[in-house]
Design brief:
Elements (H helix, E strand, L loop, with lengths): L5 H10 L13 H21 L3 E11 L2 E10 L5 E7 L8 E7 L2 H5 L7 H15 L2 E6 L3 H4 L2 H12 L4 H7 L10 H10 L3 E5 L3 H9 L3 E6 L10 H11 L13
Parallel strand pairs: 4-5, 4-6, 6-7
Antiparallel strand pairs: 1-2, 2-3, 3-5
Amino acid sequence: MDFLTPVYLLAALLIGTTLQSSSPPILNEATIFSVGFLVIALSLYKKKINKIVKRVSSARLPTACGSFVVYCYKSMSDGLEHVAIVKGEIGKGKNVLVRVHSECLTGDIFGSARCDCGNQLELAMKLIEEAGRGVVVYLRGHEGRGIGLGHKLRAYNLQDNGRDTVQANEDLGLPVDSRDYGIGAQILKDLGVKTMKLMTNNPIKCIKLKGYGLEVSERVPIVTPITKDNKRYLETKEAKMGHLYSLGTQNAIY
């Protein structure tokens, strides 16, 4: 019965194989697709209804961008610690200015010019300081859009040899973007956020967060300087990943 993983359990239900069978169900292409879809759907549903992160601690955090309160959250599945940086009172949680930021060691810490991550994080904190109210959720484990630091550096070498950021991931046999925002959504809910003005150039992020029960009332572009080092990277995200940089779409909902 070792083959009775969630995938095979679902497959058995789909094609009518008894769970007491001594051999795994035979999966055709259509069944594999259906099972894969159901596994993803069940995973999202579990993260939507089950508590997967807990608040650990908080403290006052003076920064170059202003004074905030920092919260540490711990994932109950893998032990990773995530961060929320909060300005002002969330109140009833309506139309809170929010940035859900993916960890980028090279950009956020070392100021890499290959991407716009560090600049986006700094700008988000400045905009929240100006607004007097808002949240930055900093998600660990998102390095390289989910592929990890080691693979990201391998992808950089491929990019130096002519591949773009999408092609480099594909050449390594890795997903273009495997990030999940379930933990980020639960952190925002724990802080009392109900509807948000989401600072992002990525419409897919809006869709994913809405899938976890949060309302995006406005998408706020977070436009940072284009340099010779990140120009192709930003152009690729716009052309191949649907990122939007036009200020004219600032109030669009996605």
